[in-house]
Design goal:
The structure is a homodimer. Chain A is built from 8 helices and 8 strands. With about 220 residues, chain A is of the alpha+beta class. The structure holds manganese (II) ion (4 copies). The structure holds a DNA duplex (30 and 30 nucleotides).
Chain lengths: ~220, ~220
DNA sequence: AAAAAAAGTTAGACTACCCTAATAAAATAT
DNA sequence: ATATTTTATTAGGGTAGTCTAACTTTTTTT
């Protein structure tokens, strides 16, 4: 039905929020090209195909919107990606910085039966190893209404429920800092000087940079 | 390193026994084309590339032999294929006629770490759901010295340890006959008239056609 | 409103993989 | 030893996906 390449374009558009509602709004050719690390000229050609397949809507020189069919398929690929990441993490004991690259391949395996059995085998998980929600079979995904640590007020207590940046670089840094999903913490102070955030967890006080705080989600 | 297409060519050559020793000997272009269901002209072009990559040896108008590098990679792909089939069968409860098609996709996922962890997760299985041996990390595969039911003598008692034909059509037929891997049976009679084989298993007598008998392996 | 910058498109080329039709070489049969 | 058949190769063409360089349209700045 769809090639791995087409699926990656759809996923990138979804990530950029190219939805008629709920998202950041339509994306542009250059923006999409940047996201995919592919040249705009190439993206332009692929968009023609995606339009013809009814997966995106775009007027000449205009912005790109995912159609309902496009959105549904993007979510299906994201569902597979996150289920595979969960499998790698829970069953094969990959670390959370190792799962993404392999899931990037596994997400393109075509077999509805496989996806559903995998989901069952994993016990119908609701989030992947990075705290991202896993869409259900019908493409429903719980809306993410999570605040970053940077925008939570002083005194707030909660758990780390997700990360915004899934790069191995960032995740390994978190491991080094001793920060992982589910960790309970309290924000003790926002430091005005450089935006650093002071927090306390399990009786230990620590300071993280603003950049780290912006990429951590808390409940 | 290698594309999925290249891997399928190597696997087909291995299946045809294009080894310098142990196999049926070198394969021809047409034979390989038939195996892959691709036209000889196309195969001819791909062979040029495989030669340049040092995976096969072939003189102009000559037969095709896998090099050591080619053989090793073919076995690596077969290893992945059989491990995935085992995973689908053991963990996701696929039936033995459903596993092959999905494994045909999964075998091309690139990650040595994944293969090794999967093998560990499965408990280092020695055979896949069809009784075919699973090569180890170093590419060693126990030689298959198994006899078909058709060539075993009357009175022989043993277990079904494998099938020659992995098609869903054949495997579903076996299910219908109540024949599965590990089943103990005794050959009671070879019927000269049409080559059918009469056998007895768990106190039940049954007759299978010659074609079925030729595709069942016993120990 | 004109100039400059940014965004989007077109043209032409390349690799990977596939095809059919025609041709050349090798193997087999007469 | 030819003739026939089989096998292998070449020539030319197609789709998918990528690139660079040049060009056009839209947006932003002055
Ligand atoms: Mn991921
Ligand atoms: Mn992908
Ligand atoms: Mn198989
Ligand atoms: Mn394959």
């Amino acid at each position: 039905m769809f090639t791995a390449t087409e699926e990656n374009y759809l996923k990138a558009l979804f990530r950029l929020g190219a939805l008629s509602e709920g998202g950041k709004g339509p994306a542009g050719t250059n923006e999409l090209a940047l996201e995919l690390d592919i040249r705009p000229a190439t993206v332009n050609g692929m968009l023609k195909k995606l339009r013809e397949k009814g997966l995106v809507e775009q007027r000449r020189y205009g912005k790109i919107l995912l159609t309902e069919a496009g959105r549904l398929h993007a979510v299906e690929v994201i569902r597979k990606h996150r289920l595979w990441e969960t499998f790698l993490y829970e069953k094969l004991h990959f670390t959370w910085d190792e799962v993404h690259d392999v899931a990037e391949q596994l997400e393109h395996i075509r077999s509805v039966h496989l996806t559903d059995r995998l989901e069952e085998f994993l016990g119908y998980p609701s989030v992947d190893p990075h705290g991202d929600p896993i869409p259900d079979k019908e493409g429903r995904m719980p809306p993410e209404v999570r605040r970053t640590l940077a925008e939570s007020e002083e005194g707030h207590a909660g758990r780390i429920v997700g990360v915004c940046d899934n790069s191995a670089e960032f995740l390994q840094y978190l491991d080094r800092l001793g920060l992982s999903l589910g960790l309970r913490l309290t924000i003790t102070r926002h430091i005005p000087f450089d935006g650093s955030v002071e927090l306390e967890s399990a009786g230990i006080r620590m300071i993280i940079t603003r950049k780290v705080a912006e990429n951590l989600l808390v409940d």
